[in-house]
């Protein structure tokens, strides 16, 4: 017995120890863009500590079916960065070139992965950027670098802690990139690469650099760091001002895509003339208002935005000029600035200083200047704290001495979410995009200077799509993710293209799908109102927000014709290619004023709205010119031709294909699901209008319910809502016949309706009726359902994990609910399911005795060991 006790204790210790193994399991399958499994794809996991320092690696390769299984060392304080590459000819290293790669993922904390991950990875076509640099003596130079996606503005690869002499970076081939190199003892240089889609060949060589053998879509960029110093001088002009108390010209490097990054060490150093054999320094004449500074003219060429900032008394002024310099350029004189008052509501703030660096000593110096403060606040009006955000603010200074460009900056998580911009007071901000994972990302449209000064707070909302005129419960909003391609981004292919099952916001967890990469589309909506974001980038930003009119807010057809209008829109950034939006309609066969879907159906967008649902464009009064719309609001400039088509009448196609449903014909009618789909360039505040003819339904009288019925619908329920149960013969909701699968009933609070569903009779209790909702209890096994007006929910009545009943709340009138019950499967299927459940219950009762017997045996054994 002693031996048996030792065996028992060993087994106990063994099973307890299983939950403390110091590793988590990572499994999955890797596919190419055609959904074919990839053999010998490399799975790399880089392990980082809390300071983002790399402390280790885990790696493996996929098998012949694309699968992999690996154990990853774990620690609650660690973070994990996943990378996947595949090389041509199924090589397992970079001895040959890359053809596919996963998307660039951030490092995820341990708590997100500790329970294990099983992910299907869909790789993108990949390319390679090979960077080197030559100094003035034609030798290899060391450098730091950063590569940004020029469309999204965020870094996808960088090295600032380690200096390198060569960098080989794999990137998705379907993007354009800004390559910035920061050499040792030289000025930054940049190059914009936007030619991975070229068909002239696979191997791109820039400058003189020998190629690798058998390269595939590789760009070799060798930076020439040779540069000359160019003197730039002139005057600052402003009427009625004869001198400055303070005066500086600050050069910003203009990155590809016309971006300026505002942050520590991002300005060009001053006094660069100190680098000459005969040193000279920047000069400023406070009385003459003249300046002379030194800027580098690199062999690669460089573009700068020069910001002149000056103070006269207590007032600050500024001006902008853009300039491009190259190696050997002559000195520039009379490069003058027109000065304007600077925008600021807080000149005295220390945060209004701009930090610049001395080229000779590399010490920093603060330049006082007026800047406009912006605060990110929550719905309660408090400035956000503990939240990091990336902000992109576009200004158009093309009429004020410079060009249109975008300020890029980041707020730090450990400080308040306030930021400052050096803006002139002649115009406002053209557009601002704010990306944060803590709140719904936001697009702030054009704001004038007077509006900004008086309204410098920007309200950030939690991700909460819903009804424009009220709050919709998150459980009512359905969300799903699909593959994004020419087939899946068409209505009707939802089943074959789904990457996640449709779920509500309370249960939606897209992390593994987003990590899986590939092109994905994001869909959400309420009832029949859906928005489908095509090729959305959810790594760059949180999910896009959205607001809709609820179905009951709109008026449908009358006997004179069918007309329906619906508002929807979003204030989120455009992190997608385009959107598809569905408008539900009532079919003419089930309503006396329903749409004749077999006739001509037309759509137009006559009204556009701002973020507060104020009308900014009405085609009746303002016309349908896309150019005029763009002139009124620059947000519509890029796609003005498409918006012009949408503002005009468009006949809806009845075929869902890329040749029939596209930019030139942006409307498709889905007669199977009673939805009209509209294609929009971006999900702004719009008010589409649908028009067509109506069809009067053919109805027949039924004796069981006292209502009317067609081949697929019946109207039933108590003749008088609130009448005692059983006052009518037969069930109130009779779905036991194959001939009838839809029943419409009216009922009051507290009423109990009988429901026949197959061979089993159920009850439906009207638990609670509010102004715009109803709560039902469906029994035998209680199921609680809450519906808003216009909402439909599907439930599983017979417990076989298949939804078999749909319930719709049509309306509430004088505390009487109008409900529609629809059977989703055949009666024979329901009866088979009910028989199977009876058999299972009988078996379950028998199995319970075995469970009880085993439990008694375990108790006896434990008692025995305790006694020993």
Strand content: 35-45%
Distance between the termini: 10 Å
Structural class: mainly beta
Rg estimate, integer Å: 33 Å
| Rounded mean pLDDT score | 77
Number of strands: 63
> What's the number of structural domains?
5
Q: Helix fraction? A: 10-25%
Number of helices: 9
User: What is the 3D shape?
Assistant: globular
Report on this structure.
It is a single chain. Strands 2, 3, 5, 6, 7, 9, 12, 15 and 16 form a nine-stranded mixed beta sheet that branches. A seven-stranded antiparallel beta sheet has the order 37-36-38-39-43-49-48. It is globular and about 105 Å long. Helices cover 11% and strands 41% of the residues. It folds into five domains: 2-122, Immunoglobulin-like; 125-224, Immunoglobulins (Immunoglobulin-like), CATH 2.60.40.10; 227-459, no CATH class; 477-486 and 497-695, no CATH class; 704-828, Tick-borne Encephalitis virus Glycoprotein, domain 1. Residues 1-21, 199-215, 697-728 and 840-868 have low confidence and may be disordered. Strand 52 and strand 53 (708-710) form a beta hairpin. Helix 7 packs across helix 8. By secondary structure, the chain is mainly β.
């Amino acid at each position: 017995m002693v031996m048996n006790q030792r065996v028992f204790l060993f087994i106990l210790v063994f099973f307890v120890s299983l939950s403390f193994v110091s590793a988590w399991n990572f499994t999955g399958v890797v596919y190419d863009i055609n959904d074919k499994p990839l053999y010998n794809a490399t799975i790399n996991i880089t392990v980082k500590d809390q300071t983002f320092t790399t402390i280790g690696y885990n790696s493996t390769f996929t098998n012949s079916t694309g699968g992999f299984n690996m154990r990853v060392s774990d620690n609650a304080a660690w973070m994990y960065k996943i990378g996947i590459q595949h090389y041509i000819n199924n090589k397992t290293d970079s001895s040959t070139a890359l053809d596919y790669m996963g998307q660039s993922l951030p490092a995820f904390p341990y708590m997100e992965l500790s329970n294990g991950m099983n992910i299907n990875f869909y790789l993108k076509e990949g390319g390679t950027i090979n960077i080197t640099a030559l100094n003035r003596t034609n030798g290899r130079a060391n450098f730091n670098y950063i590569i940004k996606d020029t469309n999204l503005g965020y870094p996808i690869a960088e090295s600032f802690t380690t200096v390198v002499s060569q960098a080989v970076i794999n990137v998705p081939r379907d993007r354009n990139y800004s390559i910035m190199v920061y050499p040792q003892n030289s000025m930054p240089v940049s190059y914009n690469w936007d030619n991975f889609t070229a068909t002239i060949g696979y191997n791109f060589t820039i400058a003189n650099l020998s190629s690798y053998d058998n390269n595939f879509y590789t760009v070799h960029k060798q930076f020439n760091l040779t540069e000359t110093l160019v003197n730039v001088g002139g005057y600052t002009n402003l009427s009625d001002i004869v001198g400055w108390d303070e005066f500086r010209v600050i050069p910003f490097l203009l990155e590809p895509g016309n971006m300026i990054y505002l942050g520590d060490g991002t300005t060009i150093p001053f006094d660069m003339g100190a680098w000459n054999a005969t040193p000279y320094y920047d000069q400023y004449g406070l009385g003459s208002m003249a300046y002379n500074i030194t800027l580098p003219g690199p062999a690669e060429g460089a573009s700068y935005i020069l910001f002149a900032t000056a103070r006269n008394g207590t007032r600050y002024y500024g001006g902008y000029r853009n300039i491009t310099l190259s190696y050997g350029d002559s000195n520039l004189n009379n490069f003058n600035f027109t000065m304007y008052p600077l925008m600021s509501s807080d000149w005295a703030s220390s945060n209004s200083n701009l930090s610049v660096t001395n080229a000779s000593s590399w010490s920093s110096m603060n330049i006082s200047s007026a800047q406009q403060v912006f605060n990110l606040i929550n719905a309660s009006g408090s400035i956000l704290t503990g939240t990091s955000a990336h902000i992109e603010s576009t200004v158009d200074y093309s009429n004020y001495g410079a060009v249109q460009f975008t300020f890029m900056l980041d707020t730090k998580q450990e400080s308040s979410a306030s930021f400052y911009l050096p803006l002139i007071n002649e115009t406002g901000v053209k557009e601002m995009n704010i990306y944060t994972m803590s709140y719904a990302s936001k697009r702030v449209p054009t704001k004038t200077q007077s509006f900004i000064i008086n309204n410098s707070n920007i309200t950030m909302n939690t991700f909460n799509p819903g009804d424009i005129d009220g709050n919709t419960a998150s459980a009512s909003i359905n969300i799903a993710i699909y593959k994004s391609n020419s087939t899946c981004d068409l209505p009707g292919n939802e089943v074959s293209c789904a990457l996640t099952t449709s779920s509500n916001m309370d249960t939606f967890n897209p992390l593994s799908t987003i990590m899986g990469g590939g092109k994905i589309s994001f869909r959400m909506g309420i009832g029949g109102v859906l928005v489908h974001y095509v090729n959305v980038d959810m790594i760059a930003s949180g999910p896009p927000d959205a607001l809709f009119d609820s179905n009951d807010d709109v008026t449908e057809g009358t006997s004179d014709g069918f007309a329906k209008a619906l508002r929807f829109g979003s204030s989120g950034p455009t992190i997608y290619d385009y959107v598809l939006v569905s408008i539900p309609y009532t079919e003419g066969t089930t309503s006396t004023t329903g749409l004749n879907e077999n006739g001509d159906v037309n759509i137009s967008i006559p009204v556009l709205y701002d973020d507060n649902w104020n009308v900014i464009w009405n085609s009746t009064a303002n016309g349908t010119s896309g150019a005029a719309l763009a002139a009124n609001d620059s947000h519509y400039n890029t796609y003005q031709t498409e918006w012009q088509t949408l503002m005009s009448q468009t006949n809806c196609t009845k075929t869902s294909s890329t040749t029939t449903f596209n930019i030139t014909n942006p409307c498709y009618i889905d007669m199977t699901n009673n939805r009209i789909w509209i294609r929009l360039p971006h999900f702004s505040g719009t008010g589409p209008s649908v028009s067509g003819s109506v069809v009067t339904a053919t109805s027949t009288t039924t004796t069981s319910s006292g209502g009317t019925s067609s081949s697929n619908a019946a109207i039933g329920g108590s003749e008088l809502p609130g009448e005692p149960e059983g006052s009518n013969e037969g069930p109130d909701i009779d779905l036991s016949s194959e001939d009838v699968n839809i029943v419409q009933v009216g009922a009051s609070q507290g009423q109990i309706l009988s429901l026949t569903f197959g061979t089993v009779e159920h009850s439906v209790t009207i638990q609670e009726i509010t102004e715009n909702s109803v709560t039902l209890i469906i029994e035998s096994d209680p199921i609680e359902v809450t519906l808003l007006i216009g909402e439909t929910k599907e439930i599983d009545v017979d417990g076989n994990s298949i939804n078999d009943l749909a319930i719709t709340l049509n309306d509430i009138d004088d505390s009487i609910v109008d409900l529609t019950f629809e059977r989703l499967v055949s009666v024979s299927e329901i009866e088979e399911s009910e028989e199977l459940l009876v058999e299972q219950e009988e078996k379950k009762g028998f199995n319970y005795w075995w469970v009880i017997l085993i439990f008694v045996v375990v108790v006896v054994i434990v008692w025995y060991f305790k006694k020993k």
